[in-house]
Amino acid sequence: MGRIVTSLKVKNLLDPEATLSCDALVDTGAAYLALPTAWKARLGQLHSVRTIKCETATQDLAPAEVCGPVEIQLEGFDPVYGEVLFLDMHPANGQYEPLVGYIVLEQCQAAVDMLGRRLVHVRKADLKTQRLGCTASAGHQLTY
Question: What is the β-pairing status of strands 99-100 and 118-121?
Fold first, then answer.
């Protein structure tokens, strides 16, 4: 296959001066934007939303902290807003390898071009698998 790496910028929405920029591996098997816990202080004070268990590529379970709110911008795409997952990572050759998961890719409307080993823009969001017959008035339940 091959590796797809993208440049990204993460900004703390509660402290816009606290930002970090890095290259990250695109991993469609991962859900979140995963950054090393060692970088957490670079983003200043973030709200800890929850702690979850993550299954790693080695099938180990590792605790991770989900924090936000942050602005995430992949190079060449509009910024999106969400959360970042901080995970204890072990640097290979002194370098950490952050991951961009499918949640961020979908928010950015980015698709993986395996032949070109790059991210490409998706021109429209595909909602065909969703049934949008919902009711949103007070006292009514949303139905899909």
Answer: unpaired
Do residues 79 and 73 touch, judged by C-beta distance below 8 A? yes
Q: Is residue 132 part of a domain?
A: no
Give, in order, the Cα–Cα distances in Å from 21 to each of 4, 76, 101, 103, 131: 17, 14, 17, 19, 38
DSSP state of 92: B
- How does pLDDT run across 42-101, given as a tens digit for each residue? 999 999 999 999 998 889 999 999 999 999 999 999 999 999 999 999 998 999 999 999
β-strands 80-87, 33-36: how paired? parallel
Q: What is the CATH number of the domain that holds 33?
A: 2.40.70.10
Closest CA to 62 of 97, 44, 86: 86
Report if pTM > 0.90.
no
What tokens were used for 19? 């930002």
Q: What's at 108, amino acid-wise?
A: C
- Tokens for 18? 């606290």
